[in-house]
Amino acid sequence: DTAVSQTPKYLVTQMGNDKSIKCEQNLGHDTMYWYKQDSKKFLKIMFSYNNKELIINETVPNRFSPKSPDKAHLNLHINSLELGDSAVYFCASSRSGNQPQHFGDGTRLSIL
Amino acid sequence: ELKVEQNPLFLSMQEGKNYTIYCNYSTTSDRLYWYRQDPGKSLESLFVLLSNGAVKQEGRLMASLDTKARLSTLHITAAVHDLSATYFCAGDMRFGAGTRLTVKP
């Protein structure tokens, strides 16, 4: 049983397109996160939601818009994709804002 | 904002040897985490360190926390090839750059 699942696993698309990544967790956690991992493996927090409410919104272009329809889901929509958006995007969840996080398998986004 | 610095960033060691990875952080943090990431895979939580002097051990890995020095360490004892991975320390959703460990026979 997958605890944190992301779809799709791979996403290859052209510059300027709009795409979404979905994330669902079945752990009963109330906090969810999006991270971006670049080619050098550096992990940066993008957004954090607690019980569907946005609690962290780092310096991320407003082309990125998270949506949390319920506390088990946190989706990420990206408009007007740019070459610099190529990365692996990880969704994670935790019991509260300061507990170990459980990570999804990542979505590898490649912009052509 | 918490800043987390790890060193070394790359570590190549022989099987059977011991080594320590260091993690310095800039401001007070409630807790410190260590994660492991295998190539092309997700991150797996290894340790949560909650208070000054905390020490946790799992197999050949031992993590400790010194909140006064703002330092956490991950000590590897008698390394084996299976420990090859990237290790991250993190606090308050801020991650260090990771230490890429390669254990050679």
Report on this model:
The complex is a heterodimer of chains A (112) and B (105). In chain A, β7 and β8 form a beta hairpin. Chain A is 0% helix and 56% strand. The termini of chain A are far apart. In chain A, the strands form 2 sheets. In chain A, strands 2, 4, 5, 6, 9, 10 and 11 form a 7-stranded mixed sheet that branches. Chain B is mainly β and 105 residues long. In chain B, β7 and β8 form a beta hairpin. The mean pLDDT of chain B is 94.
Shape of chain B: globular
How many strands in all of chain B?
A: 11
Q: Give me the count of strands of chain A.
A: 11
Protein structure class of chain B:
mainly beta
Fraction of helical residues of chain B: under 10%
Radius of gyration of chain B: 13 Å
Largest sheet of chain A: 7 strands, mixed
Beta-strand fraction estimate of chain B = over 45%
Q: Which percent band covers the strand fraction of chain A?
A: over 45%
Helix run count of chain B: 0
Secondary structural class of chain A: mainly beta
Notable characteristics:
heterodimer; A: 112 residues; mainly beta; seven-stranded mixed beta sheet; 0% helix; 56% strand; B: 105 residues; six-stranded mixed beta sheet; five-stranded antiparallel beta sheet; 11 strands; globular
Quick recap:
The complex is a heterodimer of chains A (112) and B (105). Chain A has strands spanning 4-7, 10-13, 19-25, 31-37, 43-50, 53-57, 64-70, 73-78, 87-94, 102-103, 107-111.
Detail the topology: elements first, then pairings.
The complex is a heterodimer of chains A (112) and B (105).
Chain A: E1 4-7, E2 10-13, E3 19-25, E4 31-37, E5 43-50, E6 53-57, E7 64-70, E8 73-78, E9 87-94, E10 102-103, E11 107-111
Parallel strand pairs in A: 2-11
Antiparallel strand pairs in A: 1-3, 3-8, 4-5, 4-9, 5-6, 7-8, 9-10, 9-11
Chain B: E1 4-7, E2 10-14, E3 19-25, E4 32-37, E5 43-49, E6 55-58, E7 61-66, E8 71-76, E9 85-91, E10 94-95, E11 99-104
